[in-house]
Amino acid sequence: MARQLQITLPEDTMQLLDRWLASSDYPENEAIKLSIMEPQRNYLKQQLKEGAIVRAERDLNLAQDWFSLEEELW
C-alpha cells in the first residue's frame, strides 16, 4: 500500500534531495529507506563496539581461567 505525502521544504533542501536521489543507484523509495535506517545501523554498531570493549577484560579472564583448567587436565 502506498500513501501520498505532501510537504513543503526549503529550496536548498529540495536541491540537496534532488542531487542525492540523482546520484543514488536505488529507486527513490529505497534510497529514502536506506537514508532513514543508516543512523539506526550506526547506533547499533557503536553500541556493539562499546559493549565488546567493556566486556573484553572479563572475557579474556574467563578464557585464561578455562585454559588453565584444561592445562591441568592434560
From TrEMBL:
One of its GO terms (biological process) is regulation of DNA-templated transcription. InterPro entries: Arc_rbn_hlx_hlx (IPR013321). This is Uncharacterized protein. It comes from Microcystis novacekii Mn_MB_F_20050700_S1D.
